Amino acid sequence: MPTHTVLVTGGAGYIGSHACVELLNAGFKVIVVDNLSNSKSESLSRVQQLTGKTLSFYEADIRDKTALTQIFANEKPTTVIHFAGLKAVGESCAQPHLYYHNNVFGTLVLTEVMQEHNVKQLVFSSSATVYGVTELTQYHEELPLGAINPYGRSKAMVEDILRDLAEADIKNKCEYPWKIALLRYFNPIGAHESGLIGEDPNGIPNNLMPYVAQVAIGKLPQLSVFGDDYPTPDGTGIRDYIHVIDLVRGHIKAIDAFNTEKFSDGNCKAYNLGAGRGYSVLEIVNAFENVTGKKINYKISPRREGDLAEYFANPELALKELNWKVEKTLHDMVADTWNWQSKNPQGYK
Ligand code: NAD
Ligand code: UFG
Questions:
Q1: What is the Cα–Cα distance from 1 to 247, expressed in whole angstroms?
Q2: From the CA of 205, how far away is ligand 2's center (Å)?
């Protein structure tokens, strides 16, 4: 089998670095393009250390067409996994222009360069936030979209753009049509079991799991549990947490699927990547205490604006068409988070 070269945008980041490990272990050649706006190149040194394999790294911005064109000409990738993007919901409300420029314009430049080099296999990091507010708690791919903040809308806009690209090729019976997987992540947590790579948020974490881990290590004094009056069994919010390794394996399954009938005439398809079950905030806190033996100091605080009570994935389509499902347990997610946090109390610094 010829070696496939996968270009990974945002490969130095949390999910991207774990994807690089899985890609290298699966025998792919890996090229990373990252501007290090939310990551450190140390993550890539660790990826190479733990796989014993090398990758190529270009410190570049995906909006820089000249740089991207040169990279495509040098490396001749066959497939792109596109993680590069900004992801903080609150920041996106404060600086929408930044988010649309980075996430939407960045993807336009990337896909333009891909098209010019006839590289038309793309796996895109989408998000469960593209779904509209609904009475249902379990989301399936056919639900109407309706993101409620600029970050979510930037993902939904990119999905629309990518669907249009694929559709144009299908209509034109293009010889090498776009094959695009839109992977809608639920809540990625955890770390590689080695503890060498993991999530290293800048400043105070926005998300539950890194916050809990930093309380456990003593970097933060107390967790605020945002609301205990939701209509859920213990009153706290429920989410579908997914181990980052399960998540990145879904990307390799998507690349495999590009060779199947589903994508043979070109296609752009959305898949939920989630476990199909949720845990509450207090269940996460309890699991963390049980696994680590550390007491998590928390207080009940008011609800956080924009949060929903409960949602989780219907992951059946990914099982049926990508032959993918989660393998890891809540214990794995917590133990691997703690292994990373305790071995790297200051992250990659
Ligand atoms: P991350 O911030 O750790 O990784 C993103 C990487 O992209 C960073 O290394 C950053 O430096 C890089 N980057 C950003 N803009 C860039 C640009 N213009 N050019 C080059 N590089 C750029 O985030 P992550 O958690 O690994 O998320 C990866 C992707 O998955 C993002 O697109 C995010 O929106 C999406 N996603 C994440 C979550 C989550 O909870 N982590 C959930 C759903 C979707
Ligand atoms: N929570 C707390 N205290 C905290 C942080 C979070 O109680 O300090 C609660 C939230 O209220 C929510 C749950 O923990 O009930 C999970 O919150 P996160 O911030 O970890 O995750 P979200 O579900 O809000 O959003 C995340 C990402 C989004 C992504 C989405 C996909 O932040 O970017 O998952 O479903 F799109």
A1: 25
A2: 10
Rounded distance from Cα 208 to ligand 2 centre (Å): 6
Q: Which residue matches tokens 């992977």?
A: 183
pLDDT tens per residue, range 260-275: 999 988 899 999 999 9
Residues 6+ apart with CB under 8 A from 45: none
Domain extent listing, the chain: 5-189+242-274+311-316
**Whole-angstrom distance, CA of residue 55 vs CA of residue 107:** 23
Please say if 151 is a catalytic residue: yes
Say which CATH architecture domain 5-189+242-274+311-316 belongs to: 3-Layer(aba) Sandwich (3.40)
> Relative to the CA of 82, which ligand 1 atom is closest?
32
3: Cα separation from own chain's centroid? 25
Give 73-111 pLDDT, tens digit per residue. Answer: 999 999 999 999 999 999 999 999 999 999 999 999 999
Give the mean model confidence (pLDDT) for residues 45-51. Answer: 98
Supply the pTM of this predicted model.
Answer: 0.98
Q: Exactly one of 151, 185, 230, 271 is catalytic; which is it? A: 151
